[in-house]
Specification:
Keywords: Hydrolase, Manganese, Metal-binding. GO terms for molecular function: metal ion binding; N-acetyldiaminopimelate deacetylase activity. The structure is a single chain. Helices cover 37% and strands 23% of the residues. The protein has helices at 2-44, 53-65, 132-146, 170-176, 234-245, 247-252, 290-310, 331-345, 363-366, 401-417, and strands spanning 70-71, 78-83, 99-105, 156-162, 185-196, 200-201, 205-208, 210-219, 223-224, 259-268, 274-275, 278-287, 314-324, 327-329, 371-379. It has a seven-stranded mixed sheet with strand order 1-2-4-3-5-15-6, sandwiched between helices. A hairpin with a 6-residue loop joins strand 1 and strand 2 (78-83).
């Protein structure tokens, strides 16, 4: 008798899941024009980290139209709550049976757009060059779908529209504001230019890197540019430090250890005919493993000091900031995400991607609760959607946006039904 009851319950759950998937597909198709229109609006009106005032207001207007309540724990960004109406969605004490956090980041970059799209950025020097406009649109699309089928939600969806991802502060700020309180799992998606459009990658394990920032100050001895023997050139020393830092990856770490050391700035000198007495360089270090992450500041300091000394100068690692840790997808969450992709989009939509040394502060969420970050592929050479994230030419295949929205909806339904 017990076995028969379990079988009946299992069959009933399977039918409910199939029905929910069919509704997600139907509602998703209907929502596609809305999702694309939202993406274009936010693309046209980008705002930098911690300045997303208009963006937050626009998101709030959309949530108001959907009758989804929300709170504003920070000056920018907000947190919406979509309550399930399935019979078991809430316990007798009013707490949700399960609560899933879904997250979209909302800030843009200090990039001057050089695309020819009719909805290009209207703000000089600011561009959604990393796809956060798409993330907002996909999450609004997912909420639009789920708001019409709350009877399939066996718990609660907490939708976080997070500011300030690009400078690595937003996730911690939201966490400090309490967005993870009572959360059982987390989901996020990132539009990605290295994954083919129409496919989505959600493999388990490390997916994005530890992200650190550093600064090295170099001190030489200034003198007349025609008398170089009288001084120690800080610019020459800094240039050699830039070159020698690359040996960290090629000589100090195992070839099987992914890592990147990039110097993005080198400044020095005061006049064209003066040997520079000071210079500085700034950069970023990206790693996957704890071992490489822990070793990196020591290696940078050693190379800077000894390189400068060989040229009669001095160098010091004056700043080393850990922005955030690596994004590591939980095994069970990744498997759930793959099933959701197959269910709502078909097995051909399951993508493969090795991961990236780019950073993402959703890692701060995944350090605290199990979850997954999915890469929604947007690479499509036929549409010119081939440029890397942060490029002034960055563009996406907008047909993938509704797929991202449908996956988020399916993942939410599946997670809350467990």
């Amino acid at each position: 008798m017990a076995g028969e009851q379990a079988r009946t319950a299992s069959e009933s759950q399977a039918r409910g899941t199939a029905d929910a998937t069919a509704r997600i597909r139907e509602l998703g198709r209907a929502a596609e024009p809305y999702v694309i229109a939202q993406r274009r609006y936010f693309h046209q009106h980008p705002e930098l980290s911690l300045q997303e005032v208009d963006t937050t207001e626009a998101i709030a207007r959309e949530l108001d139209a959907m009758c989804i309540p929300y709170e504003r724990p920070l000056d920018t960004g907000l947190v919406a709550t979509l309550a399930g109406t399935a019979p078991d969605a809430y316990r007798e004490d009013g707490s949700p049976r399960r609560r899933l956090l879904i997250r979209a980041d909302i800030d843009a970059l200090a990039v001057t757009e050089r695309t020819d799209v009719p909805f290009a950025s209207e703000r000089a020097g600011v561009m959604h060059a990393c796809g956060h406009d798409c993330h907002i649109a996909m999450q609004l699309g997912a909420l639009r779908v789920l708001a019409q089928m709350t009877d399939a939600l066996h718990g609660e969806v907490r939708a976080v529209f997070q500011p300030s991802e690009e400078n690595g502060q937003g996730a911690r700020m939201m966490i400090d504001a309490g967005v993870l309180d009572g959360v059982d799992g987390a989901y996020a998606a990132h539009i990605w230019s290295e994954v083919d459009a129409g496919t989505i990658s959600c493999e388990a394990g490390p997916r994005m890197a530890n992200t650190d920032w550093f600064r090295v100050d170099v001190r030489g001895t200034s003198c007349h540019g025609a008398m170089p023997q009288r001084g120690a050139d800080a610019i020459v020393a800094a240039a050699e430090i830039v070159n020698n830092l690359q040996t960290i990856v090629s000589r100090d770490l195992s070839p099987y250890e992914p890592a990147v050391v990039t110097v993005g700035e080198l400044h020095g000198g005061t006049a064209r005919n003066v040997i520079a007495g000071t210079a500085y360089l700034t950069g970023t270090a990206r790693t996957y493993s704890d071992t490489a992450h822990d070793a990196m500041p020591k290696l940078i300091a050693r190379i800077a000091q000894h390189t400068a000394a060989a040229l009669g100068a001095e160098a010091e690692l004056t700043d080393y900031t850990v922005a955030h840790g690596a994004v590591v997808n939980d095994e069970a969450a990744s498997a759930r995400c793959r099933r959701a992709i197959e269910r709502v989009l078909g097995p051909e939509a399951v993508g493969r991607y090795r991961g990236t040394l780019s950073g993402e502060d959703f890692s701060e969420v995944l350090r605290r609760v199990p979850g997954v970050l999915a890469f929604v592929g947007t690479r499509n050479p036929a549409l010119g959607a081939t440029f890397a994230q942060h490029s002034c030419f960055y563009r996406v295949d907008e047909s993938v946006l509704v797929k991202g929205a449908m996956l988020a909806a399916q993942y939410a339904v599946d997670f809350l039904a467990e």
